Amino acid sequence: MHDALGRRGVQARILRVEADEVQDPEALRARLKSCSLVASGVITVTTWAPVESPGRVLWSLVCLLRAIDILPNARLWAITSGVHPEAGAAAEQVALAHAVWGLGRVAALEAPSRWGGLVDVTADASSEDLAGLAEVLGSFEDQVALTRRGLVARRIESRAGEHRGRFWDLSGTALIVGGTGAIGRQVARWLSQQGVSRIVTLSRRGPDAPAAADLIAELAELGTVVECMSGDAGDANRPTHVMKLERAAGHPITSARHPQAEALWTALTTSP
After folding, report:
1. Distance CA 245, CA 247 (A)
2. Separation between Cα atoms, residue 63 and residue 22, nearest integer Å
3. For residues 190 and 78, what is the distance between their CA atoms, to the nearest angstrom?
4. Burial class of residue 190 (count of CB atoms within 10 Å of its CB; 0-12, 13-18, 19+)
5. What pLDDT does residue 189 have?
6. How far is CA 141 from CA 36, 104, 107, 129, in A?
């Protein structure tokens, strides 16, 4: 990749970092500062990563995104192998590549001034194949695959005549995991307004949750029957058991939602 960029007139420098440094945004920031870099872009290649530790790969991207704030105007590009069908990567590498692309789209929204884009390459890409990378870095495209047929950019197109009706069955029962929490109650109200006639909520306290009785009464006025069941949502067997009970009672669950009311989110560009 270094040689391919060089042949296109791009001045590239390889910066080697230790495994522990790539997991620490402050260590990365200090490393970049010590090198006195003046860069317009930072490229990280995730295809080297051991697939048994995808979490470390994703966290290293977050750390690097935070660390490059000391490089004015620098943007981060992530190189993967496995997103495009022609990549020819192993199944484990494909899963990792898709995870990186998912994180990359979030980074593009949260840190548009620091995020460059995503480039997927074939598993056996040669230096000649990577020559198109320089063209990508200088364009407005931010989701590109370098295939054997050339550059392929991501596009969303509307299909003429495609059915645009509802995408779930309102006649069945809707399951909301964590439905008595603040976000879960809002989801329940929205489903009721859409015409769902029966909702089952699953939470630790079930009908004993502080807001359960009020939710049942409120949605009853809208014509929706709400049943609050208790159980640990973290137990994969519990939702399955609830679905079986509802099916046996003649109320098959046709849609399910899992609002993360209790999750603690940290911005990608915020230091821990």
Report:
1. 5
2. 7
3. 38
4. exposed
5. 93
6. 28, 14, 15, 18
Tokens standing for 233? 């949502």
Task: Report, as ranges of residue numbers, the positions in the chain whose pLDDT lies below 50.
Answer: 261-265, 271-272
Strand-pair category, 150-153 with 143-147 = antiparallel
What is the distance between the alpha carbons of residues 73 and 186, in angstroms, rounded to a whole number?
41
Residue 183 near residue 220, CB atoms below 8 Å: no
Structure-token pair, residue 204: 């630790």
pTM of whole model > 0.85? Answer: no
- Separation between Cα atoms, residue 120 and residue 99, nearest integer Å: 12
The 10s digit of each residue's pLDDT in 130-165 is: 767 777 777 788 898 888 777 888 877 766 655 555
What residues contact 50, with CB distance under 8 A and at least 6 apart? none
Q: Per the structure block, which two tokens stand in for 140? A: 């407005």
- Tell whether the torsion through CA atoms of 32, 37, 40 and 46 is positive or negative: negative
Nearest to 122 by CA among 77, 83, 78, 76: 83
